[in-house]
Amino acid sequence: MKKSILVLGTRGIPNIPGGVESHCQSLYPILAQKYDLDITVVARKPYVPYTESEYQGVKLKALPAVTNKSLEAPLHSLLAALYAIKQGVDIVHIHAIGPGLVTPILRLFGKKVIFTHHSQNYDHQKWGKLAKFILRLGEKFAMKYASEVIVISDFMQNLMSEKYGRNDTHLIFNGVHSAQLPQQDKIAGYLAKYDLKPRDYIIAVGRFSQEKGLNVLLEAFQSSGINKKLVLVGDSDHPTEYSEKLKASAKQTAGVILTGFLSGDELSSIFSQADTFVLPSFSEGLPIALLEAMSFSLPVIASDIPANKAVHLPNECYFPCGDSQKLASMLMVSVNHSRVNYDEYLKKYDWNVIAEQTYDIFSSLSFEKR
Q: Where, by residue number, does the polypeptide cross the bilayer (predicted)?
């Protein structure tokens, strides 16, 4: 009989914006197909068009969710946990610290729980005191009660050891697919849609929330005077004062293009033809957008936060977090540089390797470890 695994903590797959969502969309089809696992990903109804569906061998189940940014993840995770208990699944794989709140409940009902720690979300500026308390509690519960814990960077592994004495965590990186470019006529069509030309623009990809630091990039672009456009790919899940102010400022700045969320061939086309990629974040887990930029061989500039530095790029790729003037000077130097070969960096971010490492953890539970 196949091992049954239920996944919670994501808005859903496929093609739903977000780092955890991209992670799940890449990982679980490989696990389902290569290792013959019975996997169900639980999604949040406001974000997906289905109640029940299937994606590349992975079952999809959408459950109701409130669209309150503080309560959405924990309340939906509670509903997903009750669903897992009712369905009698063998293993529950939880992603992110908000959903980690339900770990003790699942363990109380005899479920084996794997928890993947993606990011210290309580450091994000968008959260209020209550939300930060819930997120910290979710991290604490997950680290204390999960059967197995996965961390996605060596920085996070060391931190969890220091904070909670959890010294048995598994270091499994995020991954990136080999660059898959659409046909040239498709690329040309997508570029024309936004009045772009190859190598004629700087790109940033991310949610329009404070921790992504896109306002810092916008300020740097405004003061740099470089003869390039700036393409901001993304938006906010829920309109906020920050996101609305960012979009208003972008629309008033010459050369700035807002595309909204992109996916599939359109995202690949716009991403791959950029001159330079910038990641100005104040907080990250292990940024998939940065890995994707590297897969397209783009010159990259990133803030010097620990999560970004965990990729171990040359020092000249990093700027002091929040320093728009330093970023502006780096933009002036970086544009028009030749493509970069990141093959050696990307070897450890192979999704097939990541799937094998994750499967080994599923197997280690072996229906015995409690």
A: none
